[in-house]
Amino acid sequence: MTTENSPEVVLGVGAGIAAYKVCELLRLFTESGHSVQVVPTADALRFVGEPTWAALSGRPVATGVWDAVHEVPHVRIGQRADLVFVAPATADLLAKAAHGLADDLLTNTLLTARCPVVFAPAMHTEMWEHPATQANVATLRARGAIVLDPAVGRLTGADTGRGRLPDPADLFAAGRRVLARGGLEADLAGRRVLITAGGTREDIDPVRYLGNRSSGRQGYALAATAVARGADVTLLSANVTLPDPAGADVRRVRSAVELQEAVLAESDKADVVVMAAAVADFRPAERAPGKIKKQAGSGPAPIELVENPDILAGLTRDRAHPGQLIVGFAAETDRVLEHGRQKLARKGCDLLVVNQVGGGKAFGTADNQAVVLGADGSATEIPHGPKEALADRVWDLVADRLTPRPRGDTQR
Fold first, then answer.
1. Which stretches does the entry tag as region Phosphopantothenoylcysteine decarboxylase (predicted)?
2. Percentage of the chain with pLDDT > 70?
């Protein structure tokens, strides 16, 4: 590791058309005080030339194992790094990394690095979904590497689908989250995590709905921090306007019933389910087909409500598999711990994150505080601070309770 104040980042660049986006990622790293060594593959230089990387990094570009041989670059670059970030990570690069091949400077660097390694894949959808690529991703994640899920969007030519490199700002945020852990082990590597975030909306008519004040920021913080700790993250987002966390597979839902369907479809594959979304307790018995009109001289017609499904209680009652951990959230306005303990007993989850809301607390803010109640009788206070800090503390508690994987088990 570097002993200088500025973290040493190795930016590995693969041979993909998305290499032009990585110029912006490099700028974000350097302008925030990171020292960046760019290591492109030979074919990556066909997309963005060496002078561009040198100008943006302020350092000579490392391109071959035979350059400056006396400095042993194929060993030293990886040894000095605090973070290796590979973008775009092509199918070829992922395959070489998974199988330990080292036929150029970048793949040699990946073998010698003892710091966190992040791969940001970018390729056509068919290549990403191919069983060989998925097996390589599972292998890398099981070894502790962080492989971000690619985004969905426009690809090369007219094609659209999953395989797009996430936006540079989102990649930078993911890299900073990894660096903030100070080289700690990616303790969620190889784990599949399902997170819900935001607030459900129950339609009254095409214009109006019943909803709540949840912004989804805490759920998104949980997703971003889980990615930084190596997890394979699926995020069910209920009416959230925040940017997608880089590396998470984000699915959109609207109502409590839609959320329940999505949770049931995904939970059987998850090692951990975190129900951070604010789910409406009730919904209108019927949705009006047109906008409900105000009738002059008469009050509003009553709206009959029916109870929504209790998604959290259903998950704990019918766990998908032994060892699955389920985390719930409880937003309370008064008698917070009393109501939290009652909810923990009713829901049957392993951990319940209890926080006070209202009066400018929690909803829509960048910070939060909570007490995490455990089914084992534990109570962990998390002091007031950024929602990312609270998320990391929740993952600490989850990681302590996860059943160790059998040796060689890379995917469920």
1. 1-192
2. 92
